[in-house]
Specification:
single chain, 163 residues, alpha+beta
């Protein structure tokens, strides 16, 4: 069980840390039927891992150590670096809820993947990640012939054909 400490008299980075931790606790309770939410305390912050129970769903995790939040969706494609203010925590929440709801597509190539998260308002957030030196080699049109992972097939149509 994770507790939230009172934020009285905290500086901006600590209050952002409390908001992010509050989100983790709220999601652990709210999503208990749809996902496993693991909160791991570390010195100066914490790491949250949200693993949807749906077969083939993508995992989402974030770390918050008071200087910013790093969000990772999927294998190595979806990575966002956020601050710790209220807007960033709201954006983090939107990403996490979208992934758990199945509004995410991951496209796999050789040593690379692209993650498309369709947020609640219908906007698409796209991030591509590369692994190692081989991932940096040019591969023209790799998203067209690569393997896709979409839990909800309607998500592919909703995300558009240009992912």
């Amino acid at each position: 069980m994770v507790g939230i400490q009172d934020g009285g008299g905290e500086d901006a980075s600590t209050s952002g840390l409390a908001r992010s931790r509050g989100l983790a606790v709220a999601l652990a309770v709210e999503l208990s039927d749809a996902a496993w939410v693991l909160v791991d305390d570390a010195e100066g912050g914490f790491v949250v891992d949200v693993v949807p129970r749906r077969v083939g769903a993508r995992r989402v995790s974030w770390g918050d150590f008071g200087v910013g939040i790093v969000v990772q969706v999927g294998d190595f494609g979806g990575r966002w670096e956020l601050g710790g203010d209220e807007e960033d925590v709201a954006y983090l929440e939107d990403i996490v809820r979208s992934v758990v709801a199945g509004r995410v597509v991951e496209i796999f190539g050789v040593r690379r993947s692209r993650v498309v998260v369709i947020l609640a308002d219908g906007t698409r957030e796209v991030e591509t990640g590369y692994e190692g030196p081989a991932g940096c080699l040019p591969m023209p049109l790799w998203p067209r012939w690569s393997r896709r992972n979409a839990v909800n097939l309607a998500c592919l149509a909703w995300s558009g054909s240009t992912v």
